[in-house]
Amino acid sequence: MSTGTKDEIKGKFHEVKGKAKQVAGQVTDNPKLEAEGQVEKLTGKIQKKVGQVEKVLEK
Questions:
Q1: pLDDT (tens digit, 9 = 90+) per residue, 8-58?
Q2: What is the DSSP letter of 34?
Q3: Cβ-contact 19, 37 below 8 angstroms
Q4: CA-CA to 22 of 20 to 30 Å: which in 15, 16, 40, 51?
């Protein structure tokens, strides 16, 4: 499996995990958890994009 594909998968995982944290923070009225979720979701999106760029550059 190429590095780009691995980064895309890890990025998607962090996006989903971040979204879950964000929703949990909203439901429990925990702004800290909600903010952590937003940051993790954004980090995942960035990592996924990096993976996509790496895949293009590998070709």
A1: 999 999 999 999 999 999 999 999 999 999 999 999 999 999 999 998 998
A2: H
A3: yes
A4: 51
pTM for this entry: 0.86
Sign, CA torsion 32/33/34/35: positive
Q: Residue 52 in contact with residue 4, Cβ under 8 Å? A: yes
Angle between helices 3-27 and 31-58 (to 10 degrees): 160
Contact residues for 6 (Cβ-Cβ < 8 A; gap 6+)? 51
